[in-house]
Structures are given as structure tokens and as C-alpha cells.
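Table S5 (text form). Sequence records supplied for joint modeling of the two-component complex.
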Amino acid sequence: MAQYMFLFRGGDARDLDPNASPEKWQAHMLKWRAWMESLGKAGKFVGGEPLEKRGKVLSGRSKKMTDGPFVEGREIVGGYLLVNAESFDEAIELSRGCPIFEHDGIVEVRPVQKMDV
Amino acid sequence: MVAGLTRLLGSRHLELAEDVVQEAFLRATREWAFHGIPENPSGWLRRVARNLAIDHLRHQVRAMELLEENAALLRSEWTLASTLDAALAEMKASDDLLRMLFACCHPDLPAEHQVALALKTLCGLSVREIARAFVTKEETIQKRLLRAREVFRGWGRIELPDEDQRASRIDSVLRVVYLLFNEGYFATESDEFIREDLLEEAVRLGELLTREPTTDVPRVHALLALMLFHAARSEARLAADGAIVLLADQDRARWNRTLIAVASAHLARSSVGDECGAYHLEAGIAAVHATALTWAATDWRTIVHLYDQLLHIRPDAVVGINRAVAIGELHGPHAALRELEVFASDGRCLVLFHAARGELLARVGAKDEARSTLEVALGLTRNRAEKSLIQKKLLALGAGDSCGASADR
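The corresponding C-alpha cell record, covering 526 residues in total, follows.
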């Protein structure tokens, strides 16, 4: 049993179709909830948070700060999830249930690194 | 709602659940006074309770010890709101209530503690009301609640106990329902003589029990019969001006015949098997009254007979006093007064005792004694309607009349 992170990129229905009715978005959010609750019931849900759109980006040695993250809509990180899984393969399998794919989004699956130092 | 939240958060957080629900109701009383009652009052309350819980959890959740299966869901913004929504969902409310009721009636606690805890946390009775129900001091109830909460907090998960446990706990559960009903039927602290909301809640709990096969036992039907026979008379118990109308004077046309029919059906279902406990007997007595066309036509012989049996298994003052009153109808006031004397010390603090005694003394012509006894009753009661009834009796005495009715119990 190990922990894996799902990083959600893009797939925000509101960005893709700003004229979509609030009901459509609500319905979509319900799918997210259902997915996460199923992970919870299976004992796989460890934690995670959604992220606000706004942010600041600090980069480089000079720690230059800009408003951000202004990257192509598709790639803004909308949130993350931490899950328990027996293997990398299982984690990947679990990620397939994410509703983000309906809107062409991305799930990046990364194993949490064990630091023994 | 308290049951739903406690089930989600674990017994350790009972107080948080109570605070949240209490606050939601407080807000309701303030807002609804201004804006009127919303279309879906229950939904409104649930939403507000949910938001209050969210606020609290957002701040405290990392420090709170939570049930393993819910902890992660409550700590993440992804699932916090929806998890609370699910916990407070109306659909599971009855299930939550039943669970919590049985959880409160846990054998680790003494019987009185179990019942006090349930009445406080689930039925929302005040300490004063509970003290009255147990005919004991408020401090005693406070101590019991304190101790009960301590033990309750240690249990963690609120689960419906297994079949055997359910069977053994049902008596405590029924006692909770009975006392709740009693408080509604003879409301002590409120200005209303009858608290319909408590009556309904008690009946609802009784019916919930009948829907669960393992708790659908004859005793439950007997208790339901008893409650419904009494509830059937609610309309006739109060006059338009809020004064109490005693059983002898009630307009029986105003009795709810539908409820009486339902009560009779439950009474029939309760006579399966060889159980014949207190609830059966009390229901039987109520049934005799309910089927009598008039006070005079009442089958007092059967009532006295039932009271004899009831006194045998439940030798307490209230039963004794009511039996004495029935004997008064059957054998006259002198016989009744003799029977009543047996309960002089136990009944000392009961309005019922002094009211009944005053009544009987008036009937035998002992006006002065009657007057002083009724004055004791007057001093003891906290209920407005009851007070005014006793005052009327005193007035009638003073005018040289005697009162012809006896307590509606």
C-alpha cells in the first residue's frame, strides 16, 4: 500500500463553455463528488483539495513574482488528490474514473516519494 | 440532525452536534420571525446546520479525533460539504434516530442515565422537564447527564446493536418514548397544557419501532395504543380559552375517532402472546374510557380491576392516585379517600395527589380541608392551565358548590 498523487489539469467546464448553464456545471460537480465518495468508501481517499484559480508565480534565483498561473487553459492545476493504492497500476486504474476526462482534462499520476532522511 | 451528525462525527463530538443544531434553531426563530416561515422549513434548518458544521470543521478538523471511515472525507474541501449533506439527509433521519436511541440505552449506563441522556439529546427536553418526568431534583438529572455524556463519549461509533441487544434494550427505549409522551401530554414547563410536538414525536418513535422486525414486539403496540388513546382526547382537553377540561366534562364528540380506531388496532396487536405489562394495562384503561359513551356510563369495575393489576406491577403514587379516583367512582368518595391515604407521603409533592384529595374531600363535604388541600396543589403547579383549573375549583368551594369532576389522567 502506497500513496499516489493525482494532479488535475485543465478540464474546467466553465472555461471550455462559458455559456453552459449552472445546472450543467452542478451536474458535473456531482460526478466529481460521486467519484471521490466511491474512493472514500473503498478506503482509497487520503486527502486533497481543490485550488482557486488565482495565484502568484515566483520563479528563479531572483524569486521574480508574476500573477499566474497564466498557462494555456488546458494545463492549469485545478486541484490534487492523494490516494492509497497497492501499486502504480492500481493508482492509474483509479484515476480513469475521474470526470475530468469528459472535458478533455488531464490527470497526472505521481507516486509519493518516500524520504528516509 | 443531532443523531445524524453524531453518527458521522462519532460520539466524542456529541456536544458539537448539539451546539450546531441548537444554533440552527436559534437562527430560525430569529429569521423566520422577520421573513416568515420558508417553504421548506426542514430543508432550511438542515442547510443552516450543515453550514455551521462546515465552518466549525474547517477550523478544527485537524485537531479533532474522527471516525476512521469519515476522517479523510471531512478534511478535504472536495468532500466536506457533500459528506455533511449526506449525514443530514432527511431520508436517513429515522434510521439515525433509532440508532442513537438504542445507543443511549446502553447497558453500561444505569437505566435512569440512559433515559435522561436520550430525552436530553434526542428529544430536546430541558433538564427541568426531565427532572419532573423522573420526579426528582434538577441537580440529580444534571449529574446523571454529566456522567452519561462521559460514558457516551467513549463509545465512538453509533451503531445499531445486534438483535439480542435490541431485544434487551427495548424496555429502556420504550421508557424514553413513554416519558416523552407524558411530558407532551402533561406539559409542565410550558404555558401550553399539551405539547403536540412531543406527542407526535413520541408516536413517531413508537411507529419506527414497529417497522423494525426485531423491535416490533407486543409491548410497543401496547405503548402506541396507550399514546394514541390519549392523543385522541387532545382536542377535547382544552377549552377555547385554554382552560383544562377534565375527562368527566369533555365533549366526547370531539374525540378523534380515527385515532381511537388506530389505537384499538394496536391494542389488538399487543394482545398476542402472554405479555401483560404496564403498557398493556394502561392501554386497556385508556380503551375503556375511549369506548365509554359518557363518564357515567364508564365501566369503572373493569377500570378498577385493571388498576389493581397495574398497581401490583407498578406500585407508584401516580398509579395509586388514579386507582383511588376510579374507586371513588365505583364505591364512593369515602372509599377513595381511604385508598388515597396510602400514598400520602409519596404523593406529597404531586399536584395530582392534592388535586384528587381536594376533590374527594369536597365531595364528602369537608370544605375547609378541601380548600387547604387544593391550596397546596396550587402552590405546587407550574403550569398555567392547571393553575387556573385549581383556582376555579377553589372558587367553586368558596361559593359552597362541590366540584363534580376528577383528574383527567
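Note: Chain B touches chain A at residues 69, 72-73, 75-79, 82-83 (CB under 8 Å).
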